[in-house]
Amino acid sequence: MSAARRASNIARLANLGPKSEQWLNAIGVHTQRDLEKLGSVSAYRLLKNHGYNASLNLVYAIEGALRRIDWNRLPLALKTDLRVRVADAMKPRCAWCGTDPLYVQYHDEEWGVPVHDDHKHFEFLILEGAQAGLSWITILRKREGYREAFADFDPARVARYGKREFAHLMKNPGIVRNRLKIESAAKNARAFLAVQDEFGSFDKYVWRFVGGQPIQNRWKHMKQLPARTSESDALSKDLKRRGFTFVGSTIIYAHMQAIGMVNDHVIDCYRHKTLAKSRR
Questions:
Q1: Whole-number mean pLDDT of the chain?
Q2: Among 44, 43, 22, 23, which residue's Cα sits nearest to residue 33?
Q3: What letters, b where the CB count within 10 A reaches 16 and e where it falls short, cover 244-275?
């Protein structure tokens, strides 16, 4: 399809003038389907991030176009909601979460928040192990599939998984169908239960590796973030000694970031300041 043909798909939508059509095409939005997938708020954020001087009225124009009504006729309550959502979307964030709503939500609500619940610890161990060699967003999109496949992340139940369960899971499109990773989940569940027996909880065990408090870093740029640290090396080594698998230092450092053992939000991210106040 030619650029002109693609652009015409946007041009047919109400409310969008030549300039907004040009801007949207420049950020890769060529069809109504592209715009529907992105949504008015994310489109606005992308435009602003690319240096376009878009106003809030463009959000209303796009929303009206998607709803097939004149933007001036948008209900006041909807305009108010859009303003709130735009303000939230424009908060400075770590660049890695991009504009994907699922990724942004994970960044805003979970990544770096101290975890002290063993059930959640086990969930992240399974998910981090599954991620090896893949992107985190791939795992987030399969999270509910993992929840169903691995007994709502109950280590006592997963510890009993055997050949029959492994064979069934290898046919499950809702998870990463890698036999080593699937078998690792059961092996790690048994090791997890052993840690609980020894320390009273996995939480008591794992937080010892950072002295019981989150490490507060002050990175200016994402490229400064390490792939591993002395703390992740020590935790990885000890986990392996206890029988855990898929717990290399790089995986474990990602795990430590996820569960808030380390605050690796860059200092310009609005979440950094909030989490810098985190304590047990």
A1: 91
A2: 43
A3: bbbbbbebbbbbbbbbbbbbbbbeebebbeeb
Domain ranges of the chain: 3-90, 105-276
- Which residues, listed in sequence order, are joined to residue 216 by a DSSP beta bridge? 263
The CATH class of 3-90 is mainly alpha
Which among 27, 24, 94, 103 has a CA at the least distance from the CA of 59? 24
Match domain 105-276 to its CATH number in 1.20.810.10, 2.40.170.20, 1.10.340.30, 3.40.228.10: 1.10.340.30
> Per-residue confidence at 6, pLDDT binned at 50, 70, 90?
very low
Asked if residue 2 has pLDDT above 60, the reply is no
CA 163, 119, 207, 201 dihedral sign is negative
The position carrying tokens 């009273």 is 200
270 Cα distance to chain centroid:
16
Of 251, 222, 215, 37, nearest in space to 114 by CA: 215
Beta bridge partners of 263: 216
- DSSP secondary-structure letter at 263? E
* Cα gap 133→269, rounded to integer Å: 27
What tens digit of pLDDT does each residue of 118-157 get? 999 999 999 999 998 899 999 999 999 999 999 999 999 9
Return the active site residues: 106, 128, 136
Q: Please give the structure tokens belonging to residue 210.
A: 């950072």
Q: Residue 277 corresponds to which tokens in the numbers above?
A: 């106040």
**Quick one: three-class SS letters along 187-205?**
HHHHHHHHHHHHHCCHHHH
